[in-house]
Amino acid sequence: MERMHRTMAETPVSGDPDRDFAALMMPHHEGAIDMARLQLLHGKDPVLRRLAQEIIIEQQAEIELMRQWLAKPER
Length: 75
Known about the structure:
single chain, mainly alpha, Ferritin, 3 helices
């Protein structure tokens, strides 16, 4: 959580709402992935473990989509 908040606070804001959304959501999603990994390491409940697995897969895909969007030359 601390890493996520620190990274979000250190991310420069451009004033472009689309760019800022993508740039700030990536560390937010990375924080969710970190929490989901901890659940898989230590959690016992099968429903929450399944949710954690889904979060990892979905959030990684969304991070990649945002990275690609930010890397477009017209951005």
